[in-house]
């Protein structure tokens, strides 16, 4: 009877042990299933966010990156987080970062001007400079979220280019200012020369008019003239004598004064005029067509 009781107890203990072992094993299987379900759920969410990222604009991309980075940190704190899921997070975040990094490189490349010291298009240089300044502002604001590495090289290149562009724009402005000043000076000199020539011309014309006026007044008002009917001139006698001989003769004489110099005009029968100064110089001998000068 005693042995029978011992057998019952032993069997009961064995059953209890087996039950406990079974419970532990079942829980472990349950837990593993739950971990797998959670991993699959998180991986699916990562894929969904990457799809939204690819289709979104720049602001949306930055928003999704920030969200996924936050999700990664939260998942990492879970008790049963899985390394493969964390790797998936990290790889996806790196893909998103590469978009921004590549875009920075593209902007740098598009706004890197070669032979800057030979460029004369100020507008083109200014546009490139503004684009690089905008790039630096974008990098500064976005990197608060992205936390990209090796950005110093990109920012240094951009800053160096901005400095070169600024100096070139300044040089072009100075050249343009100098050229404008030279053109203005040349124009002013040409205008002054033109005005001086016009003024000299006016003075010459005025002097000629005054001389002509004074000559006319001197001959008509201050001195007497004689003609073939006058009895006062010895020339008249010679005229008459010449007339009788049929040759060219003086028909009239006229005294005149020009700028303090005195002389006599001799008017001949053929219409010509001879001007003889008191100094003995012959000033002018007119042609016989009747055009009278002096």
What is the helix/strand order? HHHHHEHEEEE
List how many beta strands DSSP finds. Answer: 5
Shape: rod-shaped
Query: Strand order across the biggest sheet?
Result: 1-2-3-4-5
Uncertain runs with pLDDT below 50, 5 residues or more?
Answer: 217-245, 287-294
Radius of gyration: 59 Å
Distance between the termini: 180 Å
What structural category characterises the helix and strand content? alpha+beta
Q: Which percent bin holds the helix content?
A: over 70%
Number of helices: 6
Strand content: 5-15%
Main beta sheet strand tally, sense and closure: 5 strands, antiparallel
**Rounded mean pLDDT score:** 82
Descriptive report:
The chain is of the alpha+beta class. 71% of the residues lie in helices and 10% in strands. It is built from six helices and five strands, in the order αααααβαββββ. It has helices at residues 2-55, 58-76, 83-110, 122-146, 152-222, 234-245, and strands spanning 225-227, 250-258, 261-268, 273-277, 282-285. It has a five-stranded antiparallel sheet with strand order 1-2-3-4-5. Strand 4 (273-277) and strand 5 (282-285) form a beta hairpin. The longest helix is centred in the middle third of the chain and has 71 residues, at 152-222. The radius of gyration is 59 Å and the shape is rod-shaped.
């Amino acid at each position: 009877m005693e042995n029978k009781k011992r057998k019952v107890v032993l069997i009961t203990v064995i059953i209890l042990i087996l039950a406990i072992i079974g419970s532990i094993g079942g829980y472990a299987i349950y837990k593993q299933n739950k971990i797998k379900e959670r991993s699959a759920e998180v991986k699916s969410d990562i894929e969904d966010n990457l799809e939204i990222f690819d289709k979104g604009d720049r602001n949306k991309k930055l928003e999704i990156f920030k969200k996924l980075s936050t999700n990664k940190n939260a998942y990492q704190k879970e008790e049963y987080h899985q390394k493969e899921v964390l790797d998936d997070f990290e790889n996806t975040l790196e893909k998103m970062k590469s978009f921004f990094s590549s875009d920075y490189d593209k902007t740098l490349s598009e706004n890197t001007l070669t032979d800057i010291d030979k460029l004369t298009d100020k507008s083109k240089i200014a546009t490139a400079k503004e684009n690089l300044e905008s790039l630096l502002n974008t990098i500064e604001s976005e990197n608060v979220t992205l936390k990209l590495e090796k950005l110093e090289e990109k920012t240094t290149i951009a800053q160096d280019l901005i400095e070169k562009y600024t100096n070139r724009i300044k040089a072009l402005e100075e050249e343009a200012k100098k050229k404008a000043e030279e053109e203005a000076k040349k124009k002013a000199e040409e205008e002054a020369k033109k005005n001086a020539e016009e003024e000299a011309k006016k003075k010459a014309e005025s002097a000629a008019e005054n001389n002509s006026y004074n000559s006319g007044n001197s001959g008509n008002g201050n001195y007497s003239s004689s003609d073939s009917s006058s009895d006062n001139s010895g020339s008249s006698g010679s005229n008459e004598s010449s007339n009788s001989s049929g040759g060219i003769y003086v028909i009239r004489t006229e005294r005149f004064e020009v700028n303090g110099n005195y002389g006599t005009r001799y008017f001949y029968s053929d219409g010509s005029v001879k001007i003889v100064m008191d100094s003995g110089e012959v000033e002018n001998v007119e042609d016989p067509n009747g055009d009278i000068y002096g």
